[in-house]
């Protein structure tokens, strides 16, 4: 309907597009063997992570039981980087022996889907598409979701200069609206076997726009949590 926001699982889109990785066809490198011992994941899976890190212009910056922490700067990301466990790869909700990550060209994926939805409507109307993935944030237990790319909505909303309840101007507050919407939708989509690949958000009261692309981040030097990695 007019003004709806469609939130899509990045893994569902990647699956439909045939981006699943067959781990049986991967020959691990010595680096993959080393990371495998550090995190406890298979060497082929670690090699798939390293390959994805290279594709997304990133690096491995740490490890923990079950995962490699990676910092990525995908082509087209205008500002900042993305922290992601295992470069976005997962072995959940994919056939045994396979891994699934983000779509190969996620901006193009949301552009095409939004265009198809607009073309199939009876009358011209506006809508937005958000591609989401689960994520973790420092010092908080459990997963949320973040928006990777969007089409048709501004992912950030600045409150800088607006006043609080006591008339004091806000100095640094910027709402991560696309992330907030992705997390709200993730409650319904789930992370296990729920099988809900998309959620439609109605009556949200937000303005849509022509923004399309990766959700901007911040540079490491500006990161509130940068010191924990020093």
Fold and architecture overview:
It is a single chain. This protein has 230 residues and is an alpha+beta fold. Helices cover 25% and strands 23% of the residues. The protein has 5 helices and 12 strands. It has helices spanning 10-16, 30-39, 43-55, 106-120, 177-189; strands spanning 5-9, 21-22, 59-64, 67-72, 82-85, 98-99, 128-135, 144-151, 157-158, 174-175, 198-201, 212-214. The strands form 4 sheets. Strands 11-1-7-8-12 form a 5-stranded mixed beta sheet. A hairpin with an 8-residue loop joins strand 7 and strand 8 (144-151). It starts with a strand and ends in a 16-residue tail after the last strand. The model has no long low-confidence stretch (mean pLDDT 94).
Summary tags:
5-stranded mixed β-sheet; alpha+beta; 230 residues; 3-stranded antiparallel β-sheet
Protein topology:
Elements: E1 5-9, H1 10-16, E2 21-22, H2 30-39, H3 43-55, E3 59-64, E4 67-72, E5 82-85, E6 98-99, H4 106-120, E7 128-135, E8 144-151, E9 157-158, E10 174-175, H5 177-189, E11 198-201, E12 212-214
Parallel strand pairs: 1-7
Antiparallel strand pairs: 1-11, 2-6, 3-4, 4-5, 7-8, 8-12, 9-10
Helix pairs in contact: 2-3
